[in-house]
Amino acid sequence: MSMIHNLRAAVRPSLRKDGGTYDTTRSAAESSAVVDCAVYRDGVRLPSDDSLTPRMAIRQVRRDGGFAWIGLHEPTEDEFAGVAAEFGLHPLAVEDAVHAHQRPKLERYDDTLFAVFKTIHYVEHDELTATSEVVETGEVMCFTGRDFFITVRHGGQGSLRALRHRLQDDPELLAKGPSAVLHSIADHVVDGYIAVADAMQDDIDDVETEVFSPGRRGGVSRGVDSARIYQLKREVLEFKRAVSPLMRPMQLLSERPMRLVDPDIQKYFRDVADHLARVHEQVVAFDELLNSILQANLAQASVAQNEDMRKITSWAAIVAVPTMVCGVYGMNFEHMPELHWRYGYPTIMGLTVVLCLGIHRTLKRNGWL
């Protein structure tokens, strides 16, 4: 019963009760694509050394019971061929796992479930620019069998080492078998989505505030780069590509009975599906909000251009008066009004100034200046 109560806590950051650290059998720096290989029986990791291979692990499991968990990072076809043959993985799933760039999905091949998750990592930045990278993506492919669990990870983000350690702190959960690991990875990935969504909300709020803040002149916001908004929209679209396709797989895992998924674990996929639905709603809202912000920014830019054109036109109208007067009196006709009158020049100059001031006052009152 405590396993059920601690199910969510098992995939959250925690420290070992004795304050110690875990030893791992392999590291990502090794030439082999295998990051970690272990056998679990009754939820406890059996002692092993670096010499334990996937072939040895599955043979030990099928002889003595338990399940094997093998973790790989960006394996080549040759590196993964031996694992695929030993565990009887379907060639189509193997091809997807090796070449990556797959959309999130859940497929069943004989007695194996093949799940693809997109991992999302938020890239910290001091200021959003037109070239800022807001999110980094990676992939985790999971093969779930009756007595084995294989993860194939692509990308520099989304390491599962800490998750494995946390699960090893809960033997009662791991005793439920490979489906418990599948749930923990799904929950871990979706929790990452929640964190990224919260961080992106701050970026969108900053852009929205800048676009709709009072401008320096005329109440029109100036200086907001549309390329920044568009770049943020592209990053949201990348986020959406990771979240939206995962909705259907989570629905299947939470609602459809499956032989490879323990009933006690399956009900908790509903919690993951609920969290994913919330993130999906946020991402859709982000996309729509950025559309509105982009349109508003373009509209404000158009308004600012119209305002500038009105001011240019207003000053051109004012300058037209002295230009016209000078043009008339520059025609050098012998018989012209007030040409030989003593007060002709100051009268014309005064009349010109009065006309200019009158036009300026009228345009000012109408909001053109």
Counting DSSP H or I runs of 4 or more residues, the number of helices is 13
The number of strands is 7
Helix content: 40-55%
Query: What are the segments in which pLDDT stays under 50 over at least 5 consecutive residues?
Result: 1-31, 216-223
* Overall mean confidence score, pLDDT: 81
Distance between the termini: 76 Å
Query: In this structure, how is the largest beta sheet organized?
Result: 7 strands, mixed
Rg estimate, integer Å: 35 Å
Give the key terms.
369 residues; alpha+beta; seven-stranded mixed β-sheet; rod-shaped
Question: What report would you give on this structure?
Answer:
By secondary structure, the protein is α+β, with helices and mostly antiparallel strands. It is built from 13 helices and seven strands. The chain has a seven-stranded mixed sheet, sandwiched between helices. α8 packs antiparallel against α9 and α8 runs parallel beside α12. The longest helix is centred in the C-terminal third of the chain and has 61 residues. It is rod-shaped.
